[in-house]
Design brief:
DNA-binding; 7% strand; 198 residues; homodimer; 3-stranded antiparallel beta sheet; elongated; mainly alpha; 7 helices
Chain lengths: 198, 198
Amino acid sequence: MLEFAILGLLHESPMHGYELRKQLTTKLGAFRAAISYGSLYPTLRRLQSLGCITEEAVPAGDTGLLTNRRSRVVYTITADGKERFQELLGSTGPETFDDPGFGVHFAFFARADQDTRLRILEGRRRRVEERREGLRDVLSRMAERLDSYTLELQRHGLDACEREVRWLEELIAHERSGRPPQVTAPTTPAPDSGPPER
Amino acid sequence: MLEFAILGLLHESPMHGYELRKQLTTKLGAFRAAISYGSLYPTLRRLQSLGCITEEAVPAGDTGLLTNRRSRVVYTITADGKERFQELLGSTGPETFDDPGFGVHFAFFARADQDTRLRILEGRRRRVEERREGLRDVLSRMAERLDSYTLELQRHGLDACEREVRWLEELIAHERSGRPPQVTAPTTPAPDSGPPER
DNA sequence: GTGGCGATGTATCGGTTCGATACATCGCGA
DNA sequence: TCGCGATGTATCGAACCGATACATCGCCAC
């Protein structure tokens, strides 16, 4: 999951760890809070041992225009890494509700094709609907056995589920008919598609 | 966190592992999906070694009215465990946004006093507001540097934050003025309070 | 000018939780 | 009687987190 997100970001441009974390925070900030270094650096290490990225130590001074910086480690994606990313792009994570994998996949929808997008959106909708039904069951069948705070929590959860289902419905409809929101990909500016909607 | 939830449930009545997991799933189901046995059993072990609960193996047949069941392990909270629970009841977890600790605390609000409830609700509100501001910053300042799917994700996250803040405002207002939702506690049926609101 | 302080930057450690899996018993219907 | 889903206990490896340590840089107050 973190592996996927890292590959997705490095696909756009090489980066060092600190910058990677910042970008991850803004890109995935809507679903997860922040990525800790305790996961970031081991994952980078693992990706390198798999041959998906390369590490290059930049000592100082050759950053270019600006003043010297202290030594950093710049990570670059390899061809194997790009292949791995494409593979992960189409795979759904574990089929649980609170899987952060959906948010990460959605954040990189720009690089997936329409079929993949639809499949992932519908999978997510199914899971949220299942959870919604579970919450409705609890609220209708055992409401008298739960205290009012627990009930309020269930109601709020149910509300969030219904809202997300509606959101997903809109996205699916928009994806199916009409032009899907076209994307100005940073590294590969699509030359053949229409004007980007934004 | 799981420790807290387990103590809270065992506070109501002794239970065995499978039943504990089911209750946890419905009680906390609004915030987290399910608790895995891979966390449940080690936590139970830890709680027992701390003296907060006792394990008692029930071989078979003495469940009472119904037919014999196969052997189970029934966990019972101790006086130390109740003390530990009260301690955890007032403590806030890590100050991050996606901390599931808030949901768990909220699920056991019935056992906390009004001051504690207010403190935890306001702490949560502060964290969600901070995240909301972060998302607004991203949306206003770097909207042109993000693709439309990422933007849509941020918008949805921002919407969820605003909604949760409103929810928290209502809860805080309801908690401060007027009668807080009184609770029919399963083990200690409050004899001196007014009629429960539900 | 210098002393401190916040941002930048790399890195590890211990601990919690997860998903998958294994295995055994029970009740029930094909 | 055979299988299958619910009940029930349990472990394993891996992912991820929060805290922490440590060093450099730019900048502003004193």
